[in-house]
Amino acid sequence: MYKNKQPSMNRALLNIIFISCLALGACKKKQPPQNPEVPVNLMTLKSRKVLYYDKYPATTRALNQVNLLPQVSGAITGVFFHEGGRVEKGQKLYEIDQRLYQASYDQAVANLRVSESGLTQAQQDADRYAYLNKYNAVAKQLYDHALITLEQAKNTVKASEQAVKTAKTNLTYATVYAPFTGTIGISQVRLGEVVAPGTTTLDSLSSDSPMAVEFIINEKNLPLFEKLQHKKVQVDSLFTLLMPDNSLYPHLGELAIIDRAVDPQTGSIRVRLVFDNPDYSLKAGMSCVVRVHNQDAGPQLVVPNKAVVEQMGEYFLYVAKDTVIKVSPDSLKKMDKKAAADANKSKLIAVQKKVQTGQVIGADIIIKSGIKAGDRIIIDGLQSLHDGVRITTANKVGPGGGKGGRGG
What range defines the domain where residue 381 resides? Predict the structure, then answer.
């Protein structure tokens, strides 16, 4: 029995010695520094000229657009255009059954002729009684009645003339003509369909060259657009247009109208540009993007977009600042020679700066205020940063660009 227990006791003793060695090693393991330096990459800011465009969502509008409505009722007896095609001003588009309106016109003309005959007779009677009255050869009452009859005949002729005009207008309205040159849509009525004023729309017609493009700007940008409207700023390719497929429209736009008032609820105002449309590729109602050539002639500060931190709707950059962290004499005595030599030397810290951002240009963004040329900004390692943390550029690859992105 004694010999069997001896190996077990030896194994237990060896296990105790092994665990003690592990505990001793763990106690001697170096503790991490309390304030480790965060490795980052820096970029020194330089002002430079940039080309970019302010972009605005926009909608194309026809300068002239009208819904074709019937002015008289009746059945459609003729359609004289190709749906979706171009029509010229004065071109015949629709014809409404003219028979009733032609008959009314003919009747009004006949009534006018009867009225004119009555006027001729009344005029002759009045002239005759006027002559007899001159020599007191007719009773005064008959002379007065002749003058009254003449006046009534004249009024009857005027009423008949107005009836003829009304009948002629209705007859004219039975044929619908194009009020201007443009593109007509799909007809809302077909042959034989009965139409009526105020309840039926025949079709829509819109002009197509030039074409208006409308967009909304903030009231803060209104002074710039007013200068552009009065030709106080001259820039090549000032207004360009991106089509729905993101292709560039080949013709340049001109500023035509700035709306009369700012919307007090949104602080915005509508602006209208005009573009030539010789090939009719712009259609009314298209969604597109207006590009306005930037007017900032001076150099700009451009930083990588990834260096900007957004917090609660505000934007910040981290700037590297040199600082000296003083160490007390007692702490110096406790340090080794290398640590004591590094103490009281200049260190880099990250300082958070609030900035105002501008236009995004590719992977870069313009900074309007908050930093200046010559500042060293931190362009990566931002996840580990906070205001005042120590940073280092050791063992980091330097920023490989720093020249910003392309014009957008």
Answer: 38-50+299-392
Is residue 165 within 8 A of residue 103, CB to CB? The reply is no
Residues 308 and 381 in one domain: yes
340-354: pLDDT as tens digits: 555 556 688 889 999
DSSP label of 142: H
Assess contact for 210 and 63: CB atoms under 8 A: yes
Asked if residue 223 and residue 277 are part of one domain, the reply reads yes
- CA–CA distance, 364 with 260 (Å, rounded to integer): 36
> Which CATH number covers residue 103?
1.10.287.470
CA 305 – CA 360 distance, rounded (Å) = 8
H or E segment to which residue 203 belongs = strand 203-206
Q: State which amino acid sits at residue 106.
A: D
State the DSSP string of 66-104.
EEE--SS-EEEEEE-S-TTSEE-TT-EEEEE--HHHHHH
Domain total in the chain: 3
Query: How many other CB atoms are there within 10 angstroms of residue 138's CB atom?
Result: 16
CATH assignment at residue 340? 2.40.420.20
What one-letter code names the amino acid at 289?
A: V
Banded pLDDT at 138 (limits 50, 70, 90): confident
pLDDT digits (tens, 9 = 90+) for 205-218: 999 989 999 999 99
258 inside domain: yes
75: nearest Cα among 200, 195, 198, 169? 195
Angle at 237 between CA 234 and CA 239, to 5 degrees: 95
Model-wide pTM > 0.90: no
Same-domain pairing of 151 and 235: no
